[in-house]
Amino acid sequence: MKMMKTSLYNPSNKTEFVSRLTTDIQKFNSELRNIIEKKFISSTPKKLKQAIVYSLFPGGKRIRPIIMFAVGEMLNVNRKTLTQIACSIELIHNYSLIHDDLPSMDNDDYRRGKLTVHKKFNEAIAILTGDALLTLAFELLSEILNVSAKKILQIVKLVSEYIGFNGLIAGQVLDIESNKVMITKNFNEKKKLINKIHINKTAKLIELCVVIPAIVKGVKKEQLDLLHKIGCNLGLLFQITDDLIDNLTGQDKNKLTWPEVYGVKETKSTVGSLVEELKDLIIKNFGVKKSWYLLNIIDLVAKRQN
To answer: If phi over 0 gives left and psi between -120 and 50 gives alpha, with beta otherwise, what is residue 148?
Structure first.
């Protein structure tokens, strides 16, 4: 599929994008901190407060909220309307990381260059911190401003489905059990499983960031279906590039990853195909002027080194 050429979207000119991205991340961090601190009350246990703040800041790349804001811009949805929703998704993401790092799961000692929550505090506090973030995420969704109750219910239902036992949690369970498949040489079995893991564990949360602005906007079903596809493919792109980074740094040992199943060459080819298809769908359906920020984010995801 040949990507459409246009002078309005120039991948080699990144100055404006980098400046915008940096500003957006800083602004989001400030917004998230303000929302979190307003939720603390005098009876909130001190250690829990410390663990929550420790797990959220300085934070990672904030790619999920940034994607949501980029899609919002593309669909002409006010950023203020999306801010609390974006915070909710980021809380869900961080809850999943805290639990993923636990001794009973991946048993990781470090996350984002610092001790994981269970190592910094203890395992019980880590579990409860994850629980607190997940609970607060739904509290924030219930308080969305300037969105009808019907749409809020639609968003809450979709989030619940995508992070529940048929979504993110299902992906985590499959990931834990993937060691059984690692010892086999059945290509089809590995192919089927890696796709399920990546879609559920990673892609669905990113898909939410693409679809929720469309629900807020109230787009027609045809366009909503298109954005579901774009969101899923963008989520797959993110996780497959993660797999490539892990392969490059040697962190993919004993893990079921895209390069382990398909090989590095085929994985890089898949990344290229996903990028091309995503850009083509977005440009054809939304134009370059409205989607330039999202197009640059796709480049950022595809070309990142860590």
So the answer is: beta
Q: Structural domains in the chain?
A: 15-303 (1.10.600.10)
Contact present, 204 and 168 (Cβ < 8 Å): yes
| Token pair of 15 as six digits | 């100055």
The pLDDT mean for the chain works out to 93
Bond from prior residue into 259 cis (ω within 30 degrees of 0): no
Q: Which residues of the chain have pLDDT under 50?
A: 1-7
Per-residue model confidence as pLDDT tens digits over 90-129: 999 999 999 999 999 989 999 999 999 999 999 999 999 9
Task: Report the predicted TM-score, pTM, of the whole model to 2 decimal places.
Answer: 0.93
What Cα–Cα distance (Å) separates residue 194 from each residue in 43, 159, 176, 273? 44, 22, 12, 18
CB 230 within 8 A of CB 281: yes
**Angle between helix 63-75 and helix 221-249 axes, rounded to 10 deg:** 150
Spatial CA neighbour of 162 closest among 207, 130, 96: 207
